[in-house]
Amino acid sequence: MPGLEEQIKEVAKKSGADLVGVAGPGRFNGPPSIDPTYILRGAKSIVSVATGFNANAIYDFLGKVSPYPHNIDEAVCYQKGYRAATAVADYLKSKGYKAKVVEPNAVYRRALDPFATRPTFSHRFGAVISGLGTFGLSGNVVTKEFGASIMLDTVVTNAVLASDPVRPANETMEKRCYNCKLCEKTCTMGMFRDDELEYLLINGELHSRGKRNNLDFCNAPCFGLHGISRDKKWTNWGQFWIKGWMDGSPDPEQREKVRSTFMKVGGRAGDSHQRFMAIIKMARNLYPKELTEDFFPSYENLPKDVESQKQLAIQYYKNLGVELKDPCLVTCAQCVQVCGPDFEETKKRYDLLVNSGYIVPYANWDHIHVNTYEEAAALKAKYPRRVSAADMIKDQQGQGVYWMKNFFGFEPIEEFKNLLYQRKAKAACARAGLAGKEAKAPIIVSPGYLMGLAGGSRKKKKREAPIKLTGV
Ligand code: SF4
Ligand code: SF4
């Protein structure tokens, strides 16, 4: 009879997971979001579940053929992974254990900076300590089977499970990233660096990744708010280009300025809140299979014309209760999609992205593909996003209220644990001759900014409020 760990893996794989790993007691020493007891009191182990993205859908996305096959694939993977994790949790419960699924995305700890997006439990950390892969330059978990092109889920349980072997701490960085670095070139803002590393301390080992310049360099493109490459030679599927950022990314240390710039653009988009709600719906709820995985045909059987694919996606979100004019929710994440199982595949994907020109807005909230920057700029000027003032205000308030209500706050015990972790990581880096290289995630704490986010202040600021920086 196979042991509990083997049975768990069988359940997960039968329910749609591609990769499954287990981490038991002794594996949870690191940043606060590696602590499973935050999710479930008395938790002793976790099960990490990965579902791989469809490579053909990625080619269509990066090559600017159509964004919908990959958007559909992500929507399916959200539910497939969630379903596999839920099957594991149900199985553990049937054996008398407690178990809880960590929602796939958009569940954050409360912070004074609600855009800090600190996960309740980090699926990435879970995957690393369960042996599924190691961090790559981008900070994503890179697996042998799919590269970084995966969706992760986690189950937390009070069962004492035997851990799977972990991969050597810097395996991906040493074996692949130093000779690749392609993901850094795909990031429209340069969120992370390819010439400087930062380190996370996990279970006594230092794990490296590219130093993060500013998390908002990721938040802006992920909301579709800055979709043009730094050399202006290609775009992703984002609809906006931020004027002041066209001739080079802004100073990453000017955190409040960066934040307020992209929030102004987001505030004028008119659909930011609806788009975020659609992500919340699929990432935080598990729906019947016929509404989700079975709703869409397989990649091979998807309609070939882009408009039919779009209508399918619109109908999917409508079934979940969200009306979207533009159902292209994934606009960025090239750092994930480009990273395949080996360099050859990664280079192929990279070439598709950088050699396929531009996507720009068109009439009726649509997109159009063009080959030159001049054409792209002309069409952007011709088809600016037009949103009524009422819709704009409604969207801004919806978004502001949601983020304040769900992610704003202060968790003193967790902040204290974070301080302790920071001290340990700092000391470990110093001992290893890497003084000052520990990963930090500064947050913005500014009363004016918070009031603006809550929709309470529309006054122009006379001068920038001071920024307070705290740790991860
Ligand atoms: S794309 Fe290349 S550099 Fe980036 S994480 Fe993958 S292997 Fe590493
Ligand atoms: S998701 Fe987009 S913006 Fe964020 S790091 Fe990846 S490529 Fe850069």
Q: Could you explain the architecture of this structure?
A:
The structure is a single chain. This protein is an alpha+beta fold and 472 residues long. The protein has one domain (4-392, 394-407). Helix content is 39%, strand content 12%. It is built from 16 helices and ten strands. Strand 7 (192-202) and strand 8 (205-212) form a beta hairpin. It starts with a helix and ends in a 19-residue tail after the last helix. 49% of the residues are buried. Bound molecules: iron/sulfur cluster (2 copies). The site of one iron/sulfur cluster has 16 residues, from helix 6.
The gist of it:
With 472 residues, the chain is an alpha+beta fold.
Topology summary:
Elements: H1 4-14, E1 19-23, E2 45-52, H2 55-62, H3 68-94, E3 99-102, H4 123-129, E4 134-135, E5 141-142, E6 150-157, H5 171-175, H6 182-186, E7 192-202, E8 205-212, H7 216-222, H8 255-269, H9 272-284, H10 306-319, H11 334-337, H12 343-354, E9 358-362, E10 366-370, H13 373-382, H14 389-407, H15 412-431, H16 447-453
Antiparallel strand pairs: 1-2, 2-6, 3-6, 4-5, 7-8, 9-10
Helix pairs in contact: 1-3, 2-3, 2-12, 3-10, 8-14, 9-14
Bound molecules: iron/sulfur cluster (2 copies).
